């Protein structure tokens, strides 16, 4: 999957599409999902043009990687999710149903979550 500079997250980063921001620093942006699946459903994205985690881990600077990781933890703490628990999820590629070609992590919380994957 190639990076599309007109994807929805790139547009949010450029200010062309509004978002309900909850965290922003030099390297990351976090905002509420517009179609939440749990009471707390927040997306964390790097500001750089990375399609996937493998792309990010290969090309991002140490500062970008640290900021992204720290942002995920900070957002979870700031929204009261760290105590009761939360789930982070990144869909990477076609088999995982990645819909937007920009690395993003979903933070789910605010209720008891089911199994990670149903048994088949």
UniProtKB/TrEMBL annotation:
SUPFAM superfamilies: HIT-like
Active site residues of this protein: 104
Listed Pfam families: HIT
Signal peptide (residue range): none
Limits of the HIT domain: 8-118
Motif annotated as Histidine triad motif, chain positions: 102-106
Coiled coil (residue ranges): none
Molecular-function GO term, any one: catalytic activity
CDD domains for this protein: PKCI_related
PROSITE patterns: HIT_1 (PS00892), HIT_2 (PS51084)
Domain of life: Bacteria
Name of protein: HIT domain-containing protein
Origin species: Skermanella stibiiresistens SB22
């Amino acid at each position: 999957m190639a990076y599309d500079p007109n994807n929805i997250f790139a547009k949010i980063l450029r200010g062309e599409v509004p978002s309900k921001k909850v965290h922003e620093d030099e390297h990351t942006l976090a905002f509420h999902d517009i179609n939440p699946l749990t009471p707390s459903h927040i997306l964390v994205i790097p500001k750089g043009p990375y399609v996937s985690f493998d792309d990010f881990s290969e090309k991002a600077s140490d500062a970008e990687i640290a900021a992204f990781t720290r942002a995920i933890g900070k957002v979870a703490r700031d929204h009261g999710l760290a105590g009761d628990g939360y789930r982070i999820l990144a869909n990477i590629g076609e088999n995982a149903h990645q819909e937007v070609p920009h690395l993003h992590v979903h933070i789910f919380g605010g209720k008891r979550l089911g199994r990670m994957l149903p048994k088949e």
